[in-house]
Amino acid sequence: MSDVHPQERLIGAIARLILDPAAPPARHIAVGAASPIPAAACWLVKKLGHPVRLSLLHRPTGNPFTEGTRELFDLAGQGRIDLFFLGGGQIDGQANLNLIGTGDWPGRAARFPGSFGSAFMYFMTPRTILFREEHSQRVLVPRVDIVSAPGVSPPGVFRRGTAQALVTGKCVFAFDAASARFSLASIHPGETAETVRDATGFAYDGASAPVTADPSAAELALLRGPVCDEMLETYPEFCRRVWNRTGLAGRAA
Amino acid sequence: MSDVHPQERLIGAIARLILDPAAPPARHIAVGAASPIPAAACWLVKKLGHPVRLSLLHRPTGNPFTEGTRELFDLAGQGRIDLFFLGGGQIDGQANLNLIGTGDWPGRAARFPGSFGSAFMYFMTPRTILFREEHSQRVLVPRVDIVSAPGVSPPGVFRRGTAQALVTGKCVFAFDAASARFSLASIHPGETAETVRDATGFAYDGASAPVTADPSAAELALLRGPVCDEMLETYPEFCRRVWNRTGLAGRAA
Amino acid sequence: MNPLELDALAALVPDGALMALPPDNSLSPAAFARALVRRGVRGLRLLGVPVSGYATDLLIGAGCVASVQTSAVTLGEAGMAPRFSAAVAAGTIEVIDATCPAIHTMLQAAEKGVPFMPLRGVIGSDVLAHRPDWKVMDNPFAETGDPILLLPALAPDIAAFHAVCADAHGNVYVGRRRELATIAHASRRVLVTVERMVDGNLLEDERLAPGTINGIYVEAVAVAERGAWPIGLLDEYRFDAAHIAEYARMARTEDGFRAYLAQYVTAPRADAAA
Amino acid sequence: MNPLELDALAALVPDGALMALPPDNSLSPAAFARALVRRGVRGLRLLGVPVSGYATDLLIGAGCVASVQTSAVTLGEAGMAPRFSAAVAAGTIEVIDATCPAIHTMLQAAEKGVPFMPLRGVIGSDVLAHRPDWKVMDNPFAETGDPILLLPALAPDIAAFHAVCADAHGNVYVGRRRELATIAHASRRVLVTVERMVDGNLLEDERLAPGTINGIYVEAVAVAERGAWPIGLLDEYRFDAAHIAEYARMARTEDGFRAYLAQYVTAPRADAAA
C-alpha cells in the first residue's frame, strides 16, 4: 500500500466524523456542488457497509431529484436530511460562515460566489460538517466580514443544529454550540499545535490534540477502488490527481 | 333540423354568456367535474371559432395538468383562469352558494358532497357562471343554510370577481355585484314570469324578460356534430340522452 | 426494498392514523382500502386530497373511520357517497370540511417544512367559520388592510396510493399525476400499491424520472394488480363506471353494503378475482 | 404556435426586463443569452434560480445587465465568474443577494398567487439584513415567540430556458428538471429554446406528460440546436468543461472577453457553428 495522500487523510477524517456515535444519526446525507472530498467521505462510509442514503446533487446523470434543488431544500426543511457540508471564504470562531465576500457589502474588497443555500441549510440539518482545505488567517478569521449563515442563533429561533466540526488541511476542530467555540480535536501529520495556532485567526479551546489518524488499510483499499469508481464521472480531475485514475475504464469493477 | 332539446337551449344560453362582450374576456376557461352542459357550451364557443383555451379537468385521457387540481388552483390564484362554473345545492339571492348541506353544520338535515374548490375559485376568477338545472324553492332559497362560498365580499377582501349570471332550467338571471341582487334576464320557452316567480325562493329584480333565444341552426349543427364528438369520451351518457349518440363510431369526424 | 403482500402492507396502518388518500381520478388505492377493511382497522382519520370517493365511502361503511377531512365526498356520476351520507346523518363520524386548494396548501406547507402557508379566497365561507385551526391575518406586505387566510401545515401519518410500478429502491412511478409527489413529500409514512415491480432504477431513466417519486419518501410497496379498480389508472385501465354504479346502488342500505363487502371485499381471493 | 427564429425570440425581451434564468446544471438557455448579446439588450435585471452561471456572466460582460438577484454566481469547477466579479468590483451592477430556498420560495408564492410565503432559517444572516423587502414576524400558530421569515412573491417579467423539444401547442419537454415548471408558472412571459419541434401533443402522451410544461405558460419558442452549449442538456449532451474553462480564462480580462464575444457570440453564424 503506497503512502497516504493528504486528501485521503481528509476524507478519512470526515468519514470518522460522519460515523461519530455521539452525533445525531446520519441516515440521509446530501452533498452539494464541487465537493469531492466530502463526497468521497460519504462514499467511504457507504462502502464500509453503513446504511446511509446519499443525495449527490451534481452527478451529471441520475440526479436524485425531479424538482431540482427545491426538492433538496424542501427535504431539509422537513428534517429529512441529517447531515450537510458547508465551507466558506471566511469562517470565524463562532462558526459563522461568509460565502459572500470581504470588505463592504456585498463584497467590494473580494467577492465570493454567494451564500448558496447556506443561510437555510445550516439551520435545517441536525449537523453540518464544515470543510475548508485552506487553513490560514485569511480564511479562519476572528470575525467574518459578512455573515452568510450564523453559527449559532438566539433562543427561540427555530434551528435543528449547527456545525459538528471544522476540517481543514491542518487539523480537525470540534464545535460546541453552547459555548459557540471551536476546540482542537486532532492535528494532521506534519502539523503541530503551533503551526495550527499560527495559521488560525480565531481563538479556540485546547492547546494540543492527538494526531489525526490515517485511514486504515481497508479504508485505503476502498478509497482507491470502489470509492474512486463512484467518483470518476462527477470528479474526473480529482480522481486523476489523487488516485492517478483517468477515464472510465476501471468503472466496470 | 329537429326540435331544440331543452339542454341544447341551456348550452346555447351559457355560450352566449361566455361571449358577452360586456364581461371580462374569457381566454381561458376551466370546467370541473360532471358538468356536461357547461362543457358543451365551452366547446360550442370554441367550435364557433373563438380563440379560447379550455382546461377540462375530467377528461379520462389527456388531462391538461401534471400537478392535478393543485395546478388548476394555482393557475386561478395567479389570475390565469378567466371563467369557471359553479352550482350549489342551495343558491340564494345574494349569490351565496351552499355545496355543503342543509340544516345544522355540517349538513345534518341533508348532506351535499362538500364545498370542492368553490370557496376559492369564486374569488379568483374574474367571472363565474352559476348553473343549476333544478329551478325550485328548494334550491333557490332566500338565504342558504351554510355558505360554502359567499356571493360578495366586504371592501378590502381580495376578490377578482363573482357571479356573472345564474342559468337554470327555467330562466337566466344576471347578477349585479354592487347591489348583490339577481335580475331576470331571459325566460326559457315554456316558462313565464309567473312560473319563474313561483319557483324562486329569493327576491330578484325585473318582473318580466324576453324569451331565451334558441341556438341558431348553425349552432345546433355544431352541437350535434363536432361538439358531441368532443364530449363523447367524457360524457357518454349525456351524449346518448341529448343527441342519441352512442359509442365512439362518429368520432373520426 | 422487497415488495410486501397486500395484507402485510395494510397491517402497517395503525388504528387511529391520519391517512391521506387521493380522489377517484388520481391513483386511488382501492385494493389497499379493501385490505384495510379485511384487516379491521379502526378509528382512521381520513384526509381527502382534495376530495374523497369510493375508498373513503367503503372504509366509512365498514366502520374503520372516526373522521373525514375533505373538500367533498362523491361518487361522481354515480351520485352521493351513500355510506358517508348515512354516517353524517347518524352522527357516527366527524366531518372536517375544507376546500380543495386549502388541503393542497396545508400539504405544501408540510412539504416545505414551514408551519403555515397563506391562501387567497375563503374569507366569508362557513368552512372557515368551522376551522378554529385556520387563521386570518392582515397581509404584512400590504400598505392597507388586506385580510388573508393562513393555513397550518398538515403532515399525514400515512399517505396511501396506487402507482403504476416500483423498483427495488422504492421509487414509484405515478406519471402525470405529480400531485401525488406533494402528498408523499408531506406525509410521515408512504405506503404504495403498484401494478408491478420493474428492474433497474426509475430515477436513472431520463424518460421515467419525471413521473417518479423518489424512494426516499416511500416506506413500503405491495404488488396489487388492477389495484385501483374500480377506479382507473392512467392509460393502464379505465374507470369502471358500471361497478361504481353497482356499489352506489348496493351501498344505499346497510344490508346492501354488507352484501357488497361479502361479495367484493371479504370473499376469499376477492381482490385476486377482481 | 409556430417556432420563431432565435434572434426573433431574443427581440421579445425588452430592455430593463426582470428575467429569470436557471443555473448551469438545469436547462440554461446559453444560445438565447448569446442572441440577447447580439440584440444589444440593456438594463436587464437578472434573477438566478437559484444560482447563476455562464449565461449571466456573459450578459454582464456584454453590458446587458443592470442588476443580478441570485444566491451565487459561479462557473463551478472553472471557478469564479470573472465578468461578475469585475462588475462588482467596479460597482457597475447592483447585486441583490438571496439564498437558494428563498428564491424558490418567492417564485412558489408567485406560482400560487399569494403575496408571500414563509421560510425557516435565514434569521441572523446578513443576507436578510440587506433585504428590506423581506420581513420577519412571529409565527401566528406558535404558542410562544417564534420568529419566521416571510418572503414576498416574485413574478419575473420573463423566464427563459432551453428545453428538449416543443410541440405546436407550445408545450415544452423539460424531463426531470421539473423545477423549471415553477419558474414558468411564476413568470409573466416564458420564452423557450428547444433542440427540436415534435409532432402531436406532448401532454396527451402519458409517457412524456410528466416532464412537460403546459403551453398555457409559454409565449414563444425558437429552435436552437445544441442551444444549452457549453452547458449540458439532460442525457442529450454533456457539459463542455473545456469550453467553460476557456471562457473563464478569456473572460479574466476585458480584452479577452471581447475576443470571446467576437469568436463565439457575434461572429457570423456563431451559434450555428457551435
TrEMBL record, chains A, B:
It holds the Pfam family CoA_trans. It comes from the Bacteria. One of its GO terms (molecular function) is CoA-transferase activity. InterPro entries: CoA_trans_fam_I (IPR004165), NagB/RpiA_transferase-like (IPR037171). Coiled coil: none annotated. Gene3D superfamilies: Glutaconate Coenzyme A-transferase. PANTHER family: ACETATE COA-TRANSFERASE YDIF, CHOLESTEROL RING-CLEAVING HYDROLASE IPDB SUBUNIT. This is CoA synthetase. It comes from Limobrevibacterium gyesilva.
UniProtKB/TrEMBL annotation, chains C, D:
Signal peptide: none annotated. One of its GO terms (molecular function) is CoA-transferase activity. InterPro entries: CoA_trans_fam_I, NagB/RpiA_transferase-like. It comes from Limobrevibacterium gyesilva. This is CoA synthetase.
